[in-house]
Amino acid sequence: MIDGSQLTKDAESIGYNQKVARGEDLLTGYSKIVRMGPGQIYAGGTTIASHEVARIGIGVMIERAKEEDTEWSLYDAWNKFLENTDRVSSKEYMDVEGDYYYRVRCVHSANDDVSSSFTDGVYIEEP
Length: 127
Hints:
By secondary structure, this protein is mainly β. The chain has one domain: Sandwich (Immunoglobulin-like). Helices cover 0% and strands 70% of the residues. The protein contains no helices and eight strands. Strands 1, 2, 3, 4, 5, 6, 7 and 8 form an eight-stranded mixed β-sheet that branches. The radius of gyration is 15 Å and the shape is elongated. The two termini are 25 Å apart. The model has no long low-confidence stretch (mean pLDDT 95).
């Protein structure tokens, strides 16, 4: 386990948002990672508001670690924001280096409400 994430050989992992400081606008959010094959992942997440909000966003971070590591290192990251809607999703299919565990961590925002979620670490084999 590293920073709350189990290191698994599972094909996919989904992590749901932690508690929200102010829960008026943000309903839920989740992160998802799927092993597509050796050296390939699907990574992304979704933010859902409890109603239409002025601005909703998601920040997606791909992190990786070796089994002996004590913390995750950032591999890639991106943000997506929409206005006047109640949900936003962002996903990428990507080629990655094998022989690492990868996880997705997301920051979810709806107006001023902010929360985060993260998946377990999924092992990706060498291509």
